[in-house]
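Pilot study result, target chain (192 residues):
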Amino acid sequence: LAAVIAVMLMAMLRTIVLPLVAVAFDLLTAGAAFGVLDLLFAGADPVLGGPGYLDPMSVIGIFAAVFGVTMVYEVLLLQRTREEFLATDDPHEALRRGLRTTAAPATGAAVAMLAATVPFTLTDLVTVQQFAIGLAMVVVLDALIVRPVLLPAAVEVLGRWSWWPTSRVARRGSTPPPAPTGGPTGAVPAAG
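Predicted structure:
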């Protein structure tokens, strides 16, 4: 799943490094969510009860949800940043504008997702509870840490390399404007 998503992002963003970074962050988010679930549901006497292990269906569902949910937010940011990068040829300014224009919609979507997920954390069905807590952890981690902090930091650290080979296209496409001419004939008027 991670490899397929990385290839799809490479095709969409026309870059190689950044999709790999985004997928790596998604795998880290999944690992953190499973770590929290393991603390709450695994062992001889689980904190939230249950059989002492994670339900395999919850694991599969949460892993798929990690990529489904986080990719939506990350693609929104990366696509907008790419558009700005192609227009300005400045990776820092492009990232700043991309963050500014996508922060409100992505955070709003995360809040809505949490509002829909939290009621399921209160159920007595352990499988549903595991899935809801795992999904809530993914949304919180992505909305508060990955999308606004880690992914932009990676883009800043990598600079132009984060957009390779798009950076070559942006540099080639941003030619300086022609020098101004003096009049309709192109002659420069003499200084008086």
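One observation from the pilot: Residues 173-180 have pLDDT under 50 and may be disordered. A full batch analysis is planned for the follow-on phase.
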